[in-house]
Amino acid sequence: MTALLEVEDLTVRFYTEEGVVTAVDGLSYRVEAGETFGVVGESGAGKSVAALSLLGLIDDPGRVERGEVRFKGEDLLSIDEFALRSVRGDEIGVVFQDARAALNPVYTVGEQIAETIEHHLGYEPAAAKARAIRLLDRVGIADPEARYAAYPHELSGGMCQRATIAMALSCEPDLIVADEPTTALDVTVEARILELLAELADEFDVAVQLVSHDLGVIAGTCDRAMVMYAGRAVETAPIEELYYDPKHPYTAGLMSAIPRIGDDRDRLETVPGTMPDLIEVPSGCRFHPRCPFAEEACARTDPALVDPETGEAATFDDDRAAACLEYTEGLSGGLDYSVEVDGERGRKRGGPDAEAGRDAGREGDPDA
């Protein structure tokens, strides 16, 4: 069966004065109906560019160079702007990372939600207003009738984010693209927003593509996840397997940096070095300059995503894939790391030398 969203060989470049930046390079993945799919990686990995490309939101000097974005079987990259606008906001909702900036400051919050409903669903103004107020109430905004008439600057950051979630859900889409929706929020509000997203995704039976740099957020929210590095996917897996048995050294490095309550270390582990310049990426494996297990072959050969059990090329149907020479050519020293995971399933090899708790994401009291 065809997935709700299939992204194949997506490549996005930015033509700058310094050179050509390949922000997304040959990216392929799928999102099934009703699932929450996480995209995680450091800043500069290409996560947000990939998300915005789905809906034609890349501006000059950026260009989608090649690839397909098939939503319900239709390639969104091949349709005209008018047709794309009918999909954007209606069948696919978007939640941006800075909600206050995403809202128009000269219109009330309620007017902006109602306008979306009128445009896509053909509601009369009174009916659109009533629906918008119900949505504001559903996302947990107190006194929704009064907040309908409030301007974005009159609301807190958490309330603005709730309003954008209401807008994204206003037309009952099949997919929501959430681009780091909690980045600008404090940890207590972040917890409530993520809980709300999970509740609404289940209630409305909507799929979510959640972009985040926080593995703790991905762990508590997603069904499957894709780890990105320097514009490419380096690992994909169901969330349990990703955390209990990571197959790529970069994933293991990210896990080691997760803070954990009760951790008595003076400093967190870090992934050494920085993300490479995407104008001139390293030869071979892009992660090899930072990888503690890199060998000479890693600088020569660019590894493809493969099934780590068989070494065969990964396909859309594969839930488990990793891009490391260990699974094709084999590294003489192997990937010698382990992870201790706190939880019901105990401990299992497959992560960094440092300890990493699966529940090590940020914690805080629920507070709107």
Automatic annotation (TrEMBL):
- Region annotation (Disordered) maps to 335-368
Q: Topology with regard to the membrane?
A: Peripheral membrane protein
Which UniProt keywords are present, listed alphabetically? ATP-binding, Cell membrane, Membrane, Nucleotide-binding, Transport
**Species assigned in the record:** Halorubrum halodurans
Q: Name a GO CC annotation attached to this entry.
A: plasma membrane
Q: Which SUPFAM superfamilies match?
A: P-loop containing nucleoside triphosphate hydrolases (SSF52540)
- Give residue ranges for domain ABC transporter: 5-255
Which residues fall in a compositionally biased region of kind Basic and acidic residues?
342-368
Organism domain of life? Archaea
- Major subcellular site: membrane
What Gene Ontology terms for biological process does this UniProt record contain?
peptide transport
Q: Which NCBIfam families match?
A: oligo_HPY
Record-linked InterPro entries:
AAA+_ATPase, ABC_Ni/Peptide_Import, ABC_transporter-like_ATP-bd, ABC_transporter-like_CS, Oligopep_ABC_C, P-loop_NTPase
Q: Where in the cell is it found?
A: Cell membrane
**Any one GO MF annotation of this record:** ATP binding
Q: Decide whether keyword Transmembrane is in the record.
A: no
Q: What is this protein called?
A: ABC transporter ATP-binding protein
